[in-house]
């Protein structure tokens, strides 16, 4: 099972790097929200494009960090029985869930979104608001980014759980979100030198 170590590590590193990059937009969202509040309540101005900028950033963050949420085990799970299961039982649930739910979901989202995004790009779709942003087509493209990012991590998640099924444990567990800081190496969790 050592032959799975490299692809899992590469996919995890890519997912972590993408997740970190997109997560920095949360700082931008906070700053833009502050600017919007300042403009509205101090200067009495309402700038539609500034409001939409926060909405765009939120959409980009939510679609860009889906894989990172799966990598760091921050995704939604109904944990009635799962928490008390053995590593192999959890791996069976994870493999089954990936094949029966996650993979079909990603397929449906991708297949339904390609034409939707293509039509938006064709007309260079913009905001419904007069003073809004003219880049709605770019925002809609992040639906496909979500599929790719989560799909890459789903492959790693599937391979990791296959390895657990065979070995009974994970020799190289993924990083936990509370253990990862901005300067850490996503493969080892150690500070870069």
Tell me about this structure:
The structure is a single chain. With 193 residues, the chain is mostly helical. The protein has one domain. The protein is 66% helix and 0% strand. It has six helices and no strands. The chain starts with a helix and ends in a 26-residue tail after the last helix. The model has no long low-confidence stretch (mean pLDDT 88). This is TRAP transporter small permease protein. It is a multi-pass membrane protein. Its main location: membrane. Keywords: Cell inner membrane, Cell membrane, Membrane, Transmembrane, Transmembrane helix, Transport. Belongs to the TRAP transporter small permease family.
**Which strand-content bin applies to the residues?**
under 5%
Helix proportion: 55-70%
**In angstroms, what separates the terminal alpha carbons?**
30 Å
Run of helices and strands: HHHHHH
**What low-confidence regions span 5 or more consecutive residues with pLDDT below 50?**
none
- Shape label: elongated
Computed Rg: 20 Å
Mean pLDDT, to the nearest integer, reads 88
Total beta-strand segments: 0
* Total DSSP helices: 6
Tell me the domain tally: 1
Main sheet?
A: none
Coarse structural class: mainly alpha
Any key phrases for this structure?
193 residues, transmembrane, mainly alpha, 66% helix, TRAP transporter small permease protein, membrane, TRAP_DctQ, 6 helices, transmembrane transporter activity
Outline of this structure?
With 193 residues, the chain is mainly alpha-helical.
